[in-house]
Design a protein that fits this description.
- The structure is a single chain.
- The chain has 338 residues and is of the alpha+beta class.
- 35% of the residues lie in helices and 20% in strands.
- It is built from 9 helices and 14 strands.
- The strands form 4 sheets. Strands 1-3-2-6-13-7-14 form a 7-stranded mixed beta sheet, with helices on both faces. The protein has a 3-stranded antiparallel beta sheet with strand order 11-8-12. A two-stranded antiparallel sheet has the order 4-5.
- The two termini are 33 Å apart.
- The relative contact order is 0.17.
Length: 338
């Protein structure tokens, strides 16, 4: 993990230096404080391609007050709801952040006593587990807050491991499965047809970082199934070193964002994420991975030891595998766990 983190940081530094070099020669760099050769311009990007993408639907707070959300500048897309007196706090692996809004709405319909008082966080499971062990304190930008979890959701193996070490209280509750796919820009300009194409010269990739995101293990397994250790090394070792592979921190938001900005040609994600991007109208599509090369994840949850709201947590754990919840998951391509 330390080696991968070092590679990631080195790659990020190299990319930053490359961008800076392309924008200004040594003689003109920092020539004036105004930038843009002294002429300020309004942003040219399409604001709607930057998260948050659900226009407040995934914020459970009933009173939102003054709203300050500016794409790329002030946006906390993975923290949902009000910190004021939450009655249920969920730490949810970000692989289905887009499904949480309808799930919360359905749960509140069945349990109106919790309406407007559910707070949830949707960053990668490994980061959430670290936050649990650090008392549930987060800092994003200049804001620091503490909101301990009542229930935690990730891959089944991760859930069992955290039950074993005493972080979570059993039993583990599995509910859905998910498969991998290759996400590409609409029209697939690089003509990606399968996993083997990810190793071709000139293909720019954006891939989940194994140091932070559990999906990377499934991706590595699929790369090896398809093209052996050589393909996995080309994507996750050689590509990272030469800059053709960008490693993400929050893969479920960064991959489509990089693709839409023309920074990459392809990236492996969960199938559900590609489906969501297409559903909201983003110029994204996916290239299916055959079953013989694919890797299936089992999602599960459990209560956090010492949860402040155990009754609410138990209600959510029962709800998450109900027919109502499973129907919502199926809308995004998840399959019920049997």
């Amino acid at each position: 993990m330390g080696k991968l983190k070092h590679i990631f940081l080195s790659t990020a530094l190299s990319l930053a230096v490359g961008v800076a070099t392309s924008l200004a020669t040594p003689s003109t760099a920092f020539a004036n404080d105004a930038g843009w050769n002294g002429t300020a311009e309004a942003p040219r990007y399409q604001g709607d391609i930057f998260p948050p993408w659900q226009h407040g639907q995934n914020n459970d707070a009933k009173t939102k007050g003054f709203v300050l959300t500016v794409p790329e500048v002030d946006s906390m897309a993975d923290f949902h709801g009000s910190l004021t007196d939450p009655a249920l706090v969920l730490y949810v692996g970000g692989n289905y952040y887009f499904a949480m809004a309808p799930l919360v709405q359905a749960f509140e319909k069945a349990h109106p006593e919790y309406a407007g008082h559910i707070f949830y966080i949707t960053i990668p499971p490994g980061m959430l587990a670290a936050a649990i062990k650090n008392g549930g304190t987060f800092t994003s930008g200049n804001m620091t807050f503490t909101v301990p979890a009542d229930a935690y959701f990730a891959g089944l193996k991760k859930i069992k491991a955290l039950i074993a070490d005493g972080t979570l209280t059993g039993p583990a509750v599995p509910y859905v499965t998910n498969d991998l796919t290759i996400m590409v820009p609409k029209g697939n300009p690089a003509h990606i047809t399968g996993l083997r194409d990810l190793g071709k010269p000139g293909i720019r990739l954006v891939m989940p970082n194994p140091a932070y995101e559990g999906i990377a293990r499934q991706i590595e397994a699929s790369l090896i199934k398809c093209g052996g250790a050589a393909l996995e090394k080309k994507v996750y070792d050689t590509g990272v070193k030469n800059g053709s592979t960008i490693l993400t921190h929050i893969h479920h938001r960064q991959t489509p964002l990089f693709l839409m900005q023309g920074l990459a040609d392809a990236g492996v994600t969960w199938k559900s994420e590609a489906i969501f991007q297409e559903q909201i109208g983003h110029p994204i599509q996916d290239v299916p991975i055959p079953a013989k090369y694919n890797t299936t994840a089992i999602y599960a949850g459990a209560m956090v030891k010492g949860a402040m709201h155990p009754k609410a947590a138990q209600a959510w754990l029962e709800f998450i595998r109900s027919p109502t919840a499973l129907k919502i998951f199926e809308h995004y391509g998840f399959k019920p766990y049997h």
